[in-house]
Amino acid sequence: MDDGKLDALGQTIVSALPGAATAHSVAFNQLTVDVEVGKIVEVVTFLRDDPNCRFVNITDVTAVDYPGREKRFDVVYHLLSPTLNARIRLRAEADETTQVPSIIGVFPGADWFERETYDLYGVIFAGHPDMRRLLTDYGFDGHPLRKDFPAHRLRRGPLRRPGEAGAVRAGPAQPGIPQVRFPLAVGRRGLSAAGR
To answer: Which of 1, 24, 42, 136 is the most exposed place for a label (fewest CB within 10 A)?
Structure first.
């Protein structure tokens, strides 16, 4: 879909959802629609059900952190319309205490995307049936993709002092220790180990 058609689609969406969809822009052959965070369920339902849109595939839900802003997070939804052969990005601003409505009732596949966004950024999705950590350990303190997350708190694992039983040394491989390499070759039969 060319930029002119995407712009027309953006105008149609904004005019059909007054108060929910506030603005649109087209860049890099992709439509971005700014939405009010409390109306996200209404917006994605319209985009899925409207015969001129048919955005029936949820591709991703994530966030972008701007710690200098009052509403520091952009919660970002990516949808795909196979009928139009087009993608759309929805962007909603939220702060650390905003409870973003879950879209699982519209797109059940958003379940893990919302959990991942909660785990890594701390964005809370209201109405989510299982809002718990997905990628980090349950006892993990903080949200590692926030820009203000202290990187010095990250540890490489259970390292021990040299001389202790089971000591592990972090760093480059030691010279003289053989390293196993598996070169791959592509032939008529596909990908295989070289020399076989």
So the answer is: 136
Distance CA 180, CA 133 (A): 36
pLDDT at 138: 77
Q: What sign results for the dihedral spanned by CA atoms 58, 73, 9, 27?
A: negative
For the stretch 101-135, pLDDT in tens is 999 999 999 999 999 999 999 999 999 999 988 89
b/e map 57-77, b = 16+ CB within 10 Å:
ebeebbbebeeeeeebbbbbb
pTM of the model: 0.76
Instruction: Name the token pair of 143.
Output: 């949200």
| DSSP-assigned letters across all residues of 2-62 | -HHHHHHHHHHHHHHSTTTEEEEEEETTEEEEEE-GGGHHHHHHHHHH-TTT---EEEEEE
Q: Going by C-beta distance under 8 Å and a sequence separation of 6 or more, which residues neighbour residue 122? A: 96, 143, 146
